[in-house]
């Protein structure tokens, strides 16, 4: 069992980012005595395939499934709303098979 939080506070919905940002926490910075305020925002997960992974094709097949409509439906059904399309900061590093699901960040 677990507690189901409403979308206004569960950090799962980008539509509430302005509201999430009204909460913040002060944490230690890199320098002694430095403090940084971290504001709330929605949580977004990522996926990657390490370049030295020995079974690249298997990994690509898994990510292909994950990003497919069926994979996204599974994620959604388990409380992880997908970001569609997925976003990357370097399209040239993506295997060709995955580019159909991804857009490049601004």
Provide the helix percentage: 10-25%
CATH superfamily of the largest domain: Periplasmic binding protein-like II
Strand order of the largest sheet: 1-2
Strand pairing plus helix content: what structural class?
alpha+beta
- Continuous helix count: 3
Low-confidence stretches are none
Report the average pLDDT across residues: 93
CATH class of the largest domain equals Alpha Beta
Distance between the termini: 40 Å
CATH topology of the largest domain: D-Maltodextrin-Binding Protein, domain 2
What is the radius of gyration computed over CA atoms, rounded to a whole number of angstroms? 18 Å
Could you explain the architecture of this structure?
It contains three helices and four strands. It has two domains: about 1-45, no CATH class; about 45-105, 3-Layer(aba) Sandwich (D-Maltodextrin-Binding Protein, domain 2). The protein has about 110 residues and is α+β, with helices and mostly antiparallel strands. About 25% of the residues lie in helices and about 15% in strands. Strands 1-2 form a two-stranded antiparallel ribbon. A two-stranded parallel sheet has the order 3-4. The radius of gyration is 18 Å and the shape is extended. It starts with 16 loop residues before the first helix and ends with a strand.
């Amino acid at each position: 069992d677990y507690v189901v939080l409403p979308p206004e506070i569960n950090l799962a919905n980008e539509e509430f980012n302005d509201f999430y940002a009204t909460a913040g926490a002060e944490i230690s910075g890199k320098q002694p005595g430095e403090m940084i305020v971290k504001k709330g925002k929605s949580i977004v997960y990522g996926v990657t395939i390490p370049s030295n992974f020995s079974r690249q094709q298997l990994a690509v097949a898994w990510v292909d499934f994950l990003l497919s409509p069926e994979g996204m439906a599974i994620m959604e059904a388990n409380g992880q709303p997908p970001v569609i399309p997925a976003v990357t900061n370097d399209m040239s590093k993506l295997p060709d098979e995955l580019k159909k699901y991804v857009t490049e960040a601004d």
